[in-house]
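Hi Q.,

Before the meeting this afternoon, I wanted you to have the beta-D-glucopyranose prediction in hand. No need to reply - just skim if you have a minute. The sequence and ligand are here:
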Amino acid sequence: MAYVLGIDVGGSGIKGALVDLDQGVFASDRVRIPTPKHSTPRACCDVIAQIIDAFADQLGDEPIGITVPAPVVHGFVPRMANLDKGWTDLPALEFFTQRLGRPIVLINDADAAGLAEVYYGAAKGQPGVVIVETLGTGIGSAIIHNGVLLPNTELGHLELDCHDAESRASAGAREREQLGYKEWAKRLDRYFGFVEMLFSPDLFVVGGGVSKNHEKFLPLLHLRTPIVPAQLRNQAGIVGAAWAAKHL
Ligand code: BGC
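Predicted structure with the ligand bound:
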């Protein structure tokens, strides 16, 4: 079968790999290039083009999937929290399609990770409402009901105790404020408790790089809802981007 290229645009790195969508696994090595310091759409697009070039001889004409750390509403990025503000109101789908000269599918990074976990990972076969939260520089969220995504939910920006939730409870906030896991878990408990009250999900899945240390903080949370670490970890964005390129 032909493999699909997925590219994940993050705050610190832009990463791509070919994905085997039968298995939900990488079918190539991953290429990672640091996100440009001045992370304008143009600068990020140049890095994406370099990643595409690295796989050029293995790509056909089918779309590639690209994530962005922002909502994507009918191809537009209405706001951007953690990259250059030049992304605000960007007709991103048109911009990238023209500059890259090939068909693409653009999707929010947490939505991509959520789809990957639901189709291949920790939430595979889980009926009902699954909420995947990615804890990184920001907090990303994906709400999936019986396999169908409700896109662009942006739960990381819920206002909690007079703060934007991600500014207090993301993995970035933990590092910035040098919080121990116990202290950070108190903030996560508030955050997940609030999300639980709003949506009564059947399962929470927690992704992002920090989820590899899940045993240090997930057992400290007091939720009714089962909460499990992501299985695809930092591959989820790329796998989900490729899945979206094929199915959305
Ligand atoms: C953005 C989301 C994104 C999340 C994780 C948030 O600041 O608003 O769109 O999914 O960070 O990157």
